[in-house]
Amino acid sequence: MRFSIGDVVRMKKQHPCGNDRWEIMRVGMDFRIRCLKCGRMVMLPRPKFEKSVKEVVRSFSDAETENNS
User: Fold this and answer.
1) In degrees rounded to 5, what are phi and psi of residue 27?
2) Cα distance between residue 52 and residue 15, in whole Å
3) 10-58: per-residue pLDDT in tens?
4) Which long-range contacts (CB under 8 A, 24 or more apart) does 33-40 make?
């Protein structure tokens, strides 16, 4: 699965604030993600991130296409 900066993903487990949606801030061997409810940033290694993702809620490229239409 390919991920890019700006994608919003839903994780299998909730954050302590009660949210399960995160925005991808950095991709590579490590992922930096930001909670959309409280703004907390977390760094995860790629294998752990890929196992934790349940679904891609909104792809950045899809959002960009909608804005240009």
Assistant:
1) -125, 160
2) 12
3) 999 999 999 999 999 999 999 999 999 999 999 999 999 999 999 999 8
4) 33/9, 36/8, 40/15
CA angle 41, 50, 52 (to 5 degrees): 65
Position 53, amino acid: V
Is residue 50 left, alpha or beta, with left meaning phi > 0 and alpha meaning psi from -120 to 50? alpha
Predicted TM-score of the model (pTM) = 0.81
Read off the pLDDT of residues 49-68 as tens digits, 9 standing for 90 and up: 999 999 999 877 665 555 56
